[in-house]
Amino acid sequence: MTELSSAANAAAAGTTGFKLPGTTPAKTPRGYTPGLAAVNFGVYLALLTPVMVSMAFKVQHIDPANTEGSLGLVMGVGAAFALIANPLVGRLSDRTTSRWGMRRPWILGGAIVGLGGFALIGAASSVWMVLLAWCLVQTSMNAVLAAANATLPDQVPVSSRGKVSGLVGITTPIGILAGSFLVNFLPGDFERFVVPGVISLILAILFVAILKDRVLTEKPAEKFTIGMFFGSFVFNPRTHPDFGWTWLTKFLVMFGYAGIATFLPLYLVTKFGLDEESAIGVILAANLASMAAMAISSPLGGFLSDKLGKRRPFVAIAGVIMVVGLVILAVAPSILVVIIGQAVIGLGAGSFFSVDLALATEVLPNPDDVAKDLGVLNIANALPQSIAPAVAPAIIALGAATPLGGYATWYLFGALVALAGAVLVYRIKGVK
Protein backbone atom coordinates (compact mmCIF):
# COMPACT_ATOMS: atom_id res chain seq x y z
CA MET A 1 0.00 0.00 0.00
CA THR A 2 1.37 3.40 -0.96
CA GLU A 3 1.57 6.33 1.42
CA LEU A 4 -0.77 9.30 0.99
CA SER A 5 0.92 12.50 -0.07
CA SER A 6 1.66 14.96 2.74
CA ALA A 7 -0.77 17.46 1.29
CA ALA A 8 -3.55 14.90 1.17
CA ASN A 9 -2.70 13.76 4.67
CA ALA A 10 -2.82 17.30 6.01
CA ALA A 11 -6.16 17.89 4.36
CA ALA A 12 -7.55 14.62 5.70
CA ALA A 13 -6.32 15.30 9.22
CA GLY A 14 -7.87 18.73 9.20
CA THR A 15 -11.29 17.66 7.96
CA THR A 16 -12.14 14.09 8.82
CA GLY A 17 -9.49 12.73 11.15
CA PHE A 18 -8.19 10.17 8.64
CA LYS A 19 -4.59 9.03 9.15
CA LEU A 20 -1.71 7.75 7.19
CA PRO A 21 -1.45 3.95 6.97
CA GLY A 22 0.61 2.56 9.80
CA THR A 23 0.11 5.48 12.22
CA THR A 24 -1.51 5.24 15.65
CA PRO A 25 -4.49 7.50 16.48
CA ALA A 26 -4.30 9.75 19.55
CA LYS A 27 -7.94 9.25 20.50
CA THR A 28 -10.79 6.90 19.62
CA PRO A 29 -13.49 8.72 17.59
CA ARG A 30 -16.81 9.25 19.35
CA GLY A 31 -19.32 6.53 18.56
CA TYR A 32 -16.73 4.22 17.04
CA THR A 33 -16.54 1.66 19.86
CA PRO A 34 -20.32 1.05 20.19
CA GLY A 35 -20.56 1.02 16.39
CA LEU A 36 -17.85 -1.63 16.03
CA ALA A 37 -19.44 -3.67 18.82
CA ALA A 38 -22.84 -3.39 17.11
CA VAL A 39 -21.65 -4.57 13.70
CA ASN A 40 -19.79 -7.49 15.32
CA PHE A 41 -22.93 -8.35 17.29
CA GLY A 42 -24.96 -8.36 14.08
CA VAL A 43 -22.54 -10.68 12.28
CA TYR A 44 -22.31 -13.09 15.21
CA LEU A 45 -26.08 -13.08 15.69
CA ALA A 46 -26.56 -13.99 12.03
CA LEU A 47 -23.71 -16.52 11.79
CA LEU A 48 -23.74 -18.19 15.20
CA THR A 49 -27.50 -18.71 15.50
CA PRO A 50 -27.25 -21.34 12.73
CA VAL A 51 -24.00 -22.72 14.16
CA MET A 52 -25.44 -23.12 17.66
CA VAL A 53 -29.09 -23.94 17.01
CA SER A 54 -30.94 -23.58 13.74
CA MET A 55 -28.66 -25.32 11.24
CA ALA A 56 -28.72 -28.63 13.12
CA PHE A 57 -32.52 -28.67 13.06
CA LYS A 58 -32.71 -27.43 9.45
CA VAL A 59 -30.52 -30.33 8.33
CA GLN A 60 -32.46 -32.76 10.53
CA HIS A 61 -35.71 -31.69 8.85
CA ILE A 62 -34.22 -32.30 5.39
CA ASP A 63 -32.10 -35.41 6.08
CA PRO A 64 -33.19 -37.12 9.31
CA ALA A 65 -31.45 -40.38 8.43
CA ASN A 66 -27.98 -38.84 8.15
CA THR A 67 -28.17 -35.66 10.21
CA GLU A 68 -24.68 -35.78 11.74
CA GLY A 69 -22.91 -36.49 8.45
CA SER A 70 -24.87 -33.86 6.49
CA LEU A 71 -24.43 -31.28 9.24
CA GLY A 72 -20.68 -31.93 9.29
CA LEU A 73 -20.53 -31.50 5.51
CA VAL A 74 -22.45 -28.21 5.49
CA MET A 75 -20.63 -26.65 8.42
CA GLY A 76 -17.20 -27.90 7.38
CA VAL A 77 -17.30 -26.75 3.76
CA GLY A 78 -18.96 -23.47 4.70
CA ALA A 79 -16.27 -22.70 7.24
CA ALA A 80 -13.64 -23.35 4.56
CA PHE A 81 -15.17 -20.51 2.54
CA ALA A 82 -14.98 -18.30 5.62
CA LEU A 83 -11.33 -19.26 5.89
CA ILE A 84 -10.69 -17.96 2.36
CA ALA A 85 -12.91 -14.87 2.51
CA ASN A 86 -11.56 -13.29 5.65
CA PRO A 87 -7.91 -12.73 4.70
CA LEU A 88 -8.71 -12.19 1.01
CA VAL A 89 -11.21 -9.42 1.69
CA GLY A 90 -8.83 -8.04 4.28
CA ARG A 91 -6.13 -7.65 1.66
CA LEU A 92 -8.56 -6.27 -0.92
CA SER A 93 -9.87 -3.70 1.55
CA ASP A 94 -6.30 -2.60 2.24
CA ARG A 95 -6.13 -1.72 -1.48
CA THR A 96 -9.62 -0.25 -1.93
CA THR A 97 -9.62 3.31 -3.31
CA SER A 98 -13.36 3.97 -3.16
CA ARG A 99 -14.38 7.50 -2.21
CA TRP A 100 -16.55 5.80 0.45
CA GLY A 101 -13.38 4.61 2.14
CA MET A 102 -11.34 1.42 2.35
CA ARG A 103 -13.62 -0.63 4.61
CA ARG A 104 -17.18 0.64 4.25
CA PRO A 105 -17.99 -0.85 0.80
CA TRP A 106 -17.04 -4.32 2.03
CA ILE A 107 -19.02 -3.99 5.27
CA LEU A 108 -22.23 -2.89 3.58
CA GLY A 109 -21.91 -5.11 0.49
CA GLY A 110 -21.15 -8.20 2.57
CA ALA A 111 -24.18 -7.67 4.81
CA ILE A 112 -26.51 -7.31 1.80
CA VAL A 113 -25.22 -10.45 0.06
CA GLY A 114 -25.33 -12.34 3.35
CA LEU A 115 -29.02 -11.60 3.81
CA GLY A 116 -29.71 -13.10 0.39
CA GLY A 117 -27.81 -16.24 1.38
CA PHE A 118 -29.79 -16.60 4.61
CA ALA A 119 -33.05 -16.38 2.64
CA LEU A 120 -31.86 -19.18 0.34
CA ILE A 121 -31.04 -21.43 3.32
CA GLY A 122 -34.42 -20.80 4.91
CA ALA A 123 -36.23 -21.77 1.71
CA ALA A 124 -33.95 -24.71 0.78
CA SER A 125 -35.38 -28.21 0.49
CA SER A 126 -32.14 -30.12 -0.09
CA VAL A 127 -28.84 -30.46 1.74
CA TRP A 128 -26.96 -29.33 -1.38
CA MET A 129 -28.93 -26.07 -1.57
CA VAL A 130 -28.26 -25.46 2.12
CA LEU A 131 -24.56 -26.15 1.52
CA LEU A 132 -24.24 -23.73 -1.41
CA ALA A 133 -26.16 -20.97 0.37
CA TRP A 134 -24.15 -21.44 3.58
CA CYS A 135 -20.93 -21.04 1.59
CA LEU A 136 -22.29 -17.75 0.23
CA VAL A 137 -23.23 -16.63 3.74
CA GLN A 138 -19.84 -17.51 5.21
CA THR A 139 -18.03 -15.68 2.42
CA SER A 140 -20.07 -12.49 2.64
CA MET A 141 -20.40 -12.23 6.43
CA ASN A 142 -16.69 -12.90 6.96
CA ALA A 143 -16.04 -10.08 4.50
CA VAL A 144 -17.98 -7.84 6.88
CA LEU A 145 -15.90 -9.03 9.84
CA ALA A 146 -12.59 -8.63 8.02
CA ALA A 147 -13.29 -5.07 6.96
CA ALA A 148 -14.95 -3.95 10.21
CA ASN A 149 -12.27 -5.29 12.57
CA ALA A 150 -9.49 -3.91 10.36
CA THR A 151 -10.69 -0.46 11.39
CA LEU A 152 -9.48 -1.06 14.99
CA PRO A 153 -5.80 -0.14 14.44
CA ASP A 154 -6.99 2.76 12.25
CA GLN A 155 -9.21 4.22 14.95
CA VAL A 156 -7.98 3.15 18.43
CA PRO A 157 -4.68 3.91 20.22
CA VAL A 158 -2.73 0.92 21.55
CA SER A 159 -3.38 1.85 25.18
CA SER A 160 -7.17 1.53 24.68
CA ARG A 161 -7.33 -1.57 22.51
CA GLY A 162 -7.82 -3.97 25.42
CA LYS A 163 -10.93 -2.10 26.52
CA VAL A 164 -12.34 -1.91 22.99
CA SER A 165 -11.41 -5.55 22.33
CA GLY A 166 -13.22 -6.55 25.54
CA LEU A 167 -16.39 -4.74 24.50
CA VAL A 168 -16.23 -6.22 21.00
CA GLY A 169 -15.46 -9.66 22.43
CA ILE A 170 -18.61 -9.73 24.51
CA THR A 171 -20.69 -9.34 21.34
CA THR A 172 -20.04 -13.00 20.55
CA PRO A 173 -21.95 -14.40 23.55
CA ILE A 174 -24.57 -11.65 23.29
CA GLY A 175 -25.10 -12.65 19.66
CA ILE A 176 -25.41 -16.31 20.64
CA LEU A 177 -27.85 -15.46 23.44
CA ALA A 178 -29.95 -13.18 21.27
CA GLY A 179 -30.09 -15.85 18.56
CA SER A 180 -31.13 -18.53 21.04
CA PHE A 181 -33.84 -16.19 22.32
CA LEU A 182 -35.10 -15.29 18.84
CA VAL A 183 -35.34 -18.91 17.72
CA ASN A 184 -37.89 -19.57 20.47
CA PHE A 185 -40.26 -17.07 18.87
CA LEU A 186 -39.68 -17.71 15.18
CA PRO A 187 -42.12 -20.24 13.73
CA GLY A 188 -40.11 -21.87 10.97
CA ASP A 189 -36.74 -22.40 9.30
CA PHE A 190 -37.13 -19.40 6.96
CA GLU A 191 -37.66 -16.92 9.76
CA ARG A 192 -34.87 -18.46 11.88
CA PHE A 193 -32.33 -17.60 9.19
CA VAL A 194 -33.72 -14.38 7.68
CA VAL A 195 -34.58 -12.37 10.80
CA PRO A 196 -30.99 -12.47 12.21
CA GLY A 197 -29.73 -11.56 8.73
CA VAL A 198 -32.00 -8.50 8.60
CA ILE A 199 -30.79 -7.33 12.02
CA SER A 200 -27.19 -7.77 10.90
CA LEU A 201 -27.78 -5.64 7.79
CA ILE A 202 -29.40 -2.84 9.81
CA LEU A 203 -26.45 -2.70 12.23
CA ALA A 204 -23.96 -2.74 9.36
CA ILE A 205 -25.73 0.24 7.81
CA LEU A 206 -25.56 2.13 11.12
CA PHE A 207 -21.83 1.43 11.52
CA VAL A 208 -21.08 2.49 7.96
CA ALA A 209 -23.01 5.71 8.58
CA ILE A 210 -20.92 6.75 11.61
CA LEU A 211 -17.51 5.36 10.56
CA LYS A 212 -14.91 7.97 9.61
CA ASP A 213 -13.23 5.55 7.26
CA ARG A 214 -9.73 6.08 5.93
CA VAL A 215 -9.65 6.97 2.22
CA LEU A 216 -6.86 5.69 0.02
CA THR A 217 -6.44 8.29 -2.73
CA GLU A 218 -3.76 6.53 -4.77
CA LYS A 219 -3.83 2.99 -6.08
CA PRO A 220 -1.07 0.76 -4.66
CA ALA A 221 1.90 0.59 -7.00
CA GLU A 222 2.01 -3.20 -6.74
CA LYS A 223 -0.66 -4.95 -8.81
CA PHE A 224 -2.87 -7.60 -7.26
CA THR A 225 -1.51 -10.88 -8.67
CA ILE A 226 -2.17 -14.59 -8.26
CA GLY A 227 0.86 -14.75 -5.98
CA MET A 228 -0.57 -11.97 -3.85
CA PHE A 229 -3.91 -13.82 -3.77
CA PHE A 230 -2.30 -16.93 -2.29
CA GLY A 231 -0.17 -14.71 -0.08
CA SER A 232 -3.39 -13.51 1.53
CA PHE A 233 -3.62 -16.82 3.39
CA VAL A 234 -0.06 -17.36 4.52
CA PHE A 235 2.69 -15.80 6.58
CA ASN A 236 6.25 -16.75 7.47
CA PRO A 237 6.33 -18.05 11.07
CA ARG A 238 10.12 -17.98 11.05
CA THR A 239 10.22 -14.28 10.24
CA HIS A 240 7.32 -13.45 12.56
CA PRO A 241 7.24 -16.17 15.25
CA ASP A 242 5.00 -14.20 17.65
CA PHE A 243 2.40 -13.86 14.90
CA GLY A 244 2.64 -17.61 14.27
CA TRP A 245 2.21 -18.57 17.93
CA THR A 246 -0.70 -16.12 18.25
CA TRP A 247 -2.35 -17.81 15.28
CA LEU A 248 -1.88 -21.30 16.72
CA THR A 249 -3.09 -20.30 20.19
CA LYS A 250 -6.19 -18.69 18.73
CA PHE A 251 -6.90 -21.78 16.63
CA LEU A 252 -6.65 -24.19 19.56
CA VAL A 253 -8.76 -22.14 21.95
CA MET A 254 -11.41 -21.50 19.29
CA PHE A 255 -11.54 -25.21 18.49
CA GLY A 256 -12.47 -25.85 22.11
CA TYR A 257 -15.08 -23.10 22.04
CA ALA A 258 -16.73 -22.69 18.64
CA GLY A 259 -15.71 -25.95 16.99
CA ILE A 260 -17.32 -28.07 19.69
CA ALA A 261 -20.57 -26.12 20.04
CA THR A 262 -22.24 -27.09 16.74
CA PHE A 263 -23.29 -30.51 18.02
CA LEU A 264 -24.88 -29.36 21.31
CA PRO A 265 -28.46 -29.60 19.94
CA LEU A 266 -27.87 -33.20 18.81
CA TYR A 267 -26.13 -33.97 22.14
CA LEU A 268 -29.20 -32.84 24.06
CA VAL A 269 -31.58 -34.79 21.83
CA THR A 270 -29.45 -37.97 21.93
CA LYS A 271 -28.34 -38.07 25.57
CA PHE A 272 -31.37 -36.62 27.33
CA GLY A 273 -34.14 -37.57 24.89
CA LEU A 274 -35.36 -33.99 24.40
CA ASP A 275 -37.60 -32.95 21.54
CA GLU A 276 -36.67 -29.98 19.34
CA GLU A 277 -38.66 -27.40 21.29
CA SER A 278 -37.27 -28.55 24.63
CA ALA A 279 -33.71 -28.64 23.29
CA ILE A 280 -34.03 -25.05 22.03
CA GLY A 281 -35.24 -24.01 25.48
CA VAL A 282 -32.26 -25.68 27.16
CA ILE A 283 -29.85 -24.05 24.70
CA LEU A 284 -31.36 -20.67 25.55
CA ALA A 285 -30.89 -21.31 29.29
CA ALA A 286 -27.33 -22.55 28.72
CA ASN A 287 -26.43 -19.54 26.60
CA LEU A 288 -27.98 -17.22 29.17
CA ALA A 289 -25.74 -18.75 31.84
CA SER A 290 -22.74 -18.49 29.52
CA MET A 291 -23.58 -14.87 28.74
CA ALA A 292 -23.88 -13.95 32.42
CA ALA A 293 -20.43 -15.41 33.04
CA MET A 294 -18.95 -13.62 30.02
CA ALA A 295 -20.53 -10.35 31.11
CA ILE A 296 -18.29 -10.59 34.17
CA SER A 297 -15.07 -11.93 32.70
CA SER A 298 -14.90 -10.08 29.36
CA PRO A 299 -14.99 -6.40 30.45
CA LEU A 300 -13.00 -7.25 33.58
CA GLY A 301 -10.38 -9.06 31.53
CA GLY A 302 -10.04 -6.16 29.09
CA PHE A 303 -9.73 -3.61 31.91
CA LEU A 304 -7.18 -5.63 33.87
CA SER A 305 -5.22 -6.42 30.70
CA ASP A 306 -4.81 -2.71 29.92
CA LYS A 307 -4.12 -1.88 33.58
CA LEU A 308 -1.46 -4.54 34.02
CA GLY A 309 -0.09 -4.22 30.50
CA LYS A 310 -0.36 -8.00 30.03
CA ARG A 311 -2.25 -10.17 27.52
CA ARG A 312 -0.87 -13.72 27.75
CA PRO A 313 -2.06 -14.61 31.29
CA PHE A 314 -5.65 -13.87 30.34
CA VAL A 315 -5.48 -16.20 27.35
CA ALA A 316 -3.89 -18.94 29.48
CA ILE A 317 -6.50 -18.57 32.22
CA ALA A 318 -9.24 -18.61 29.60
CA GLY A 319 -8.04 -21.90 28.15
CA VAL A 320 -7.84 -23.63 31.54
CA ILE A 321 -11.32 -22.47 32.59
CA MET A 322 -12.77 -23.62 29.27
CA VAL A 323 -11.17 -27.03 29.78
CA VAL A 324 -12.97 -27.35 33.11
CA GLY A 325 -16.28 -26.39 31.49
CA LEU A 326 -15.88 -28.87 28.64
CA VAL A 327 -15.12 -31.69 31.07
CA ILE A 328 -18.25 -30.81 33.07
CA LEU A 329 -20.26 -30.85 29.85
CA ALA A 330 -18.82 -34.22 28.84
CA VAL A 331 -19.82 -36.00 32.06
CA ALA A 332 -23.02 -34.05 32.81
CA PRO A 333 -25.64 -36.33 34.43
CA SER A 334 -28.46 -33.79 34.08
CA ILE A 335 -29.63 -30.72 32.17
CA LEU A 336 -28.72 -28.51 35.14
CA VAL A 337 -25.09 -29.66 34.97
CA VAL A 338 -25.05 -29.00 31.21
CA ILE A 339 -26.08 -25.42 31.92
CA ILE A 340 -23.39 -25.10 34.63
CA GLY A 341 -20.79 -26.43 32.20
CA GLN A 342 -21.80 -23.85 29.61
CA ALA A 343 -21.51 -21.11 32.24
CA VAL A 344 -17.96 -22.19 33.06
CA ILE A 345 -17.05 -22.27 29.37
CA GLY A 346 -18.49 -18.77 29.05
CA LEU A 347 -16.39 -17.53 31.95
CA GLY A 348 -13.23 -18.71 30.20
CA ALA A 349 -14.30 -17.51 26.77
CA GLY A 350 -14.95 -14.04 28.17
CA SER A 351 -11.37 -13.80 29.38
CA PHE A 352 -10.13 -14.93 25.98
CA PHE A 353 -12.27 -12.58 23.89
CA SER A 354 -11.39 -9.65 26.14
CA VAL A 355 -7.75 -9.64 25.02
CA ASP A 356 -7.74 -11.66 21.80
CA LEU A 357 -8.05 -8.76 19.36
CA ALA A 358 -5.80 -6.48 21.43
CA LEU A 359 -3.04 -9.12 21.52
CA ALA A 360 -3.38 -9.71 17.78
CA THR A 361 -2.88 -6.03 16.91
CA GLU A 362 0.43 -6.02 18.84
CA VAL A 363 2.02 -8.83 16.80
CA LEU A 364 1.02 -7.81 13.26
CA PRO A 365 3.96 -8.15 10.84
CA ASN A 366 3.19 -5.21 8.54
CA PRO A 367 1.36 -1.97 9.47
CA ASP A 368 0.48 -1.41 5.82
CA ASP A 369 -1.28 -4.79 5.53
CA VAL A 370 -3.35 -4.63 8.72
CA ALA A 371 -6.57 -6.04 7.29
CA LYS A 372 -4.76 -8.81 5.44
CA ASP A 373 -2.85 -9.89 8.55
CA LEU A 374 -5.92 -9.73 10.77
CA GLY A 375 -7.66 -11.80 8.11
CA VAL A 376 -4.92 -14.44 8.37
CA LEU A 377 -5.46 -14.49 12.13
CA ASN A 378 -9.20 -14.80 11.58
CA ILE A 379 -8.51 -18.04 9.73
CA ALA A 380 -7.88 -19.40 13.21
CA ASN A 381 -11.49 -18.50 14.01
CA ALA A 382 -12.91 -20.13 10.90
CA LEU A 383 -10.69 -23.18 10.55
CA PRO A 384 -11.87 -24.94 13.74
CA GLN A 385 -15.43 -24.59 12.48
CA SER A 386 -14.33 -26.43 9.34
CA ILE A 387 -12.10 -29.09 10.88
CA ALA A 388 -14.30 -29.83 13.90
CA PRO A 389 -17.46 -30.83 11.97
CA ALA A 390 -15.29 -32.88 9.59
CA VAL A 391 -13.68 -34.96 12.35
CA ALA A 392 -16.62 -34.97 14.78
CA PRO A 393 -18.62 -37.86 13.25
CA ALA A 394 -15.58 -40.16 13.41
CA ILE A 395 -14.72 -39.21 17.01
CA ILE A 396 -18.36 -39.49 18.10
CA ALA A 397 -18.60 -42.90 16.43
CA LEU A 398 -15.41 -44.11 18.12
CA GLY A 399 -16.55 -42.74 21.47
CA ALA A 400 -19.90 -44.50 21.17
CA ALA A 401 -18.09 -47.79 21.78
CA THR A 402 -16.69 -46.54 25.12
CA PRO A 403 -18.48 -46.27 28.48
CA LEU A 404 -18.39 -42.47 28.20
CA GLY A 405 -20.37 -42.35 24.95
CA GLY A 406 -19.77 -40.57 21.68
CA TYR A 407 -20.58 -36.98 22.62
CA ALA A 408 -18.72 -37.14 25.93
CA THR A 409 -15.63 -38.27 24.03
CA TRP A 410 -16.07 -35.38 21.63
CA TYR A 411 -16.21 -32.79 24.42
CA LEU A 412 -13.18 -34.29 26.18
CA PHE A 413 -11.26 -34.09 22.91
CA GLY A 414 -12.16 -30.40 22.71
CA ALA A 415 -10.91 -29.92 26.27
CA LEU A 416 -7.49 -31.31 25.35
CA VAL A 417 -7.23 -29.01 22.35
CA ALA A 418 -8.14 -25.93 24.41
CA LEU A 419 -5.60 -26.91 27.06
CA ALA A 420 -2.88 -26.96 24.42
CA GLY A 421 -3.81 -23.39 23.48
CA ALA A 422 -3.54 -22.27 27.11
CA VAL A 423 -0.02 -23.68 27.33
CA LEU A 424 1.32 -22.47 23.97
CA VAL A 425 0.37 -18.81 24.50
CA TYR A 426 3.59 -18.43 26.48
CA ARG A 427 5.56 -19.10 23.30
CA ILE A 428 4.64 -15.54 22.33
CA LYS A 429 7.64 -13.51 23.49
CA GLY A 430 6.98 -9.99 22.23
CA VAL A 431 3.83 -9.46 24.32
CA LYS A 432 3.61 -9.78 28.09
TrEMBL record:
Residue span(s) of domain Major facilitator superfamily (MFS) profile: 35-432
Membrane-crossing segments per the record: 36-57, 69-85, 106-125, 131-152, 164-187, 193-211, 247-268, 280-302, 314-345, 408-426
Chief subcellular location: membrane
Transmembrane keyword on record: yes
UniProtKB keywords: Membrane, Transmembrane, Transmembrane helix
Membrane topology annotation: Multi-pass membrane protein
Protein name: Putative transporter
Species whose genome carries this gene: Microbacterium hydrocarbonoxydans
SUPFAM superfamilies according to UniProt: MFS general substrate transporter
GO annotations of cellular component type: plasma membrane
Gene Ontology terms for molecular function: transmembrane transporter activity
PROSITE patterns for this protein: MFS
Subcellular location: Cell membrane
